[in-house]
Amino acid sequence: MKTLGQRITYYRKKIGISQKELAIAAEIKPAALNYYEKDKREPNVLILIRLVKALNITGGALLGLEPPTDMITKNKNEFHALHTLRNLNSLGQEKVLEYISDLSEAPKYTEKK
Q1: CA dist., res. 82 & res. 15, Å (int)
Q2: What pTM did the predictor assign?
Q3: What does DSSP assign to residue 40?
Q4: Distance between first and last Cα of the chain
Q5: Distance separating alpha carbons of residues 86 and 109, to the nearest angstrom
Q6: Do 58 and 80 sit in the same domain of this protein?
Q7: Alpha-carbon span 62 to 8, nearest angstrom
Q8: Nearest-5° angle of CA 74, CA 68, CA 112?
Q9: 5 and which of 39, 67, 102, 111 could share a cystine (Cβ 3.0–4.6 Å)?
Q10: Domains in the chain: how many in total?
Q11: Are residues 12 and 59 in the same domain?
Q12: 72 close to 56: Cβ distance less than 8 angstroms
């Protein structure tokens, strides 16, 4: 991955999300993300930070300063769950964690099929 645009595309596709989904998570316009991925424009520092946070990777990985990193989110469902959790206030986050704890104790939801 030689260019910033290629790295953005790589990490987005590794999660399995669309440009629109990443743009929403990073709070940028989908058209802008398209330009960044095609290397027609370069994002400013604030947008780079938003992309790093949305993709759950290090800045060094996105900038190509370190090898590709393992991502916190492995798929689209985890991406959306983490993004939604981050948008909740502390009370909402605590409630979500309670639900997760309850679900993780129920065999119906923990058995792998």
Answers
A1: 12
A2: 0.72
A3: S
A4: 36
A5: 23
A6: no
A7: 7
A8: 20
A9: 39
A10: 2
A11: yes
A12: yes
Length, in residues, of the chain: 113
Tokens 């058995």 map to which residue?
Answer: 111
Over range 28-37, report the average pLDDT.
Answer: 98
Q: In this structure, are 97 and 57 located in the same domain?
A: no
Lowest mean pLDDT among 41-45, 65-69, 79-83, 97-101: 65-69
Place of tokens 């990985």: 61
43 φ, ψ (degrees, to nearest 5):
-70, 150
**Do 92 and 51 belong together in one domain?**
no
Q: Which helix (H) or strand (E) holds 60?
A: helix 59-63
Domain that holds residue 89: 76-110
> Contact at 8 Å (CB) between 39 and 45?
no
The amino acid sitting at 65 is L
The reply to whether 69 falls in a domain is no
Rounded distance, CA 111 to CA 89, Å?
A: 31
Q: CATH code at 20?
A: 1.10.260.40
